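Supplementary Methods. Inverse-folding protocol.

Structures were first reduced to a discrete structure-token string of length 347. This string, shown here, constituted the complete conditioning input.
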């Protein structure tokens, strides 16, 4: 019905934090658009900043080879939020209007925005301004609403799990409590998954309010049961007293003072974002990229590509905007973990 859209011009940008799989998504969009549909593809530099400064290059098909396993983003990224106002104006420049102007001057027929929650929010606002926008969800936090999984998450779980695996041997050798802090500002998906598959004993996530006494009592009970070391996994977004800059440091201090065992903390930080994407993320990012081109051909704009079960689907950017996918308290995985004697810091 729709056929090819030969000669159409697609812009691609990557915004927000980097994560494994972005280049695979760029490749998925670019190769499908160029090879299958004869479209022109333009890479926009540094996220939405590149749309403001009109900083872009045409991506030829040979440039897209070798991207599948490459971490980071060849387009660069930034946390530019063009709709964020200061004092009622857009930093002396009406950035949304400038983006609309540059979009037209570049001759773009569609804009693909690869990013997390903030990126999808901006994409939704640009769609309301009349631009043909489609979003691709990426984040290691897995907290983008409207999709079962965002690419980048599987790679981050793999990295965090490997770190936990390595800390098991040190914890056992020294009879210590090892605390590992993962990323996850508002959602504990990464801490939950890596904690379970990494053999964590205590997992503390933002969605479940912890009780200090419950944490200490659980660890004391493990000592009484001749379990001389414990692995504690905590998400960076867990609420702790303001004088502490890290939940892991706070938990280490709390546990040492109340349990008495030697306690050490490890903050994984940005290592969770880096490196080559896992096979699962390469596949998901590629599927997202290829599906976006088909959505462009069918003029299905104002949407974000998503994964529902095993099928690629889509959801309205307006629905995604201003929502966050946190761990539901009735998630079966939580009950399964409790049946394995994993504690979530509450009674």
């Amino acid at each position: 019905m729709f056929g090819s859209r030969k000669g159409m011009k697609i812009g691609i940008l990557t915004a927000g934090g980097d994560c494994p799989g972005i280049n695979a998504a760029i490749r998925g969009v670019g190769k499908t658009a160029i090879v299958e549909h004869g479209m022109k593809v333009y890479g926009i530099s540094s996220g939405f900043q590149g749309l403001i400064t009109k900083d872009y290059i045409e991506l030829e098909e040979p440039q897209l080879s070798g991207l599948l396993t490459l971490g980071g983003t060849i387009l660069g990224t930034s946390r530019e939020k063009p709709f964020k106002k200061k004092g009622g104006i857009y930093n002396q420049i009406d950035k949304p209007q400038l983006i609309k102007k540059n979009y037209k001057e570049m001759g773009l027929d569609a804009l693909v925005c690869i990013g997390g929650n903030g990126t999808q929010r901006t994409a939704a606002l640009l769609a309301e301004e009349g631009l043909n926008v489609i979003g691709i969800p990426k984040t290691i936090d897995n907290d983008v609403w409207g999709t079962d999984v965002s690419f980048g998450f599987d790679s981050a779980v793999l990295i965090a799990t490997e770190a936990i695996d390595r800390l098991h041997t040190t914890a056992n050798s020294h009879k210590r409590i090892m605390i590992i802090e993962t990323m996850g500002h508002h959602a504990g998906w990464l801490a939950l998954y890596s904690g379970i598959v990494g053999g964590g004993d205590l997992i503390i996530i933002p969605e479940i309010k912890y009780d200090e006494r419950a944490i200490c009592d659980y660890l004391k009970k493990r000592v009484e049961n001749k379990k001389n070391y414990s692995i504690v996994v905590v998400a960076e977004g867990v609420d702790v007293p303001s004088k502490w800059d890290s939940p892991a440091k706070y938990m280490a201090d709390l546990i040492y003072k109340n349990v008495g065992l030697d306690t050490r903390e490890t903050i994984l930080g940005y290592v969770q974002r880096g490196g080559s994407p896992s096979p699962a993320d390469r596949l998901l990012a590629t599927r997202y990229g290829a599906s976006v081109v088909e959505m462009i051909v069918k003029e299905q704009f104002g949407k974000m590509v998503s994964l529902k079960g095993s099928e690629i689907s889509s959801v309205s950017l307006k629905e995604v905007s201003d929502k966050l996918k946190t761990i539901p308290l009735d998630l079966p995985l939580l009950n399964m973990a409790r049946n394995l004697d994993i504690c979530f810091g509450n009674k």
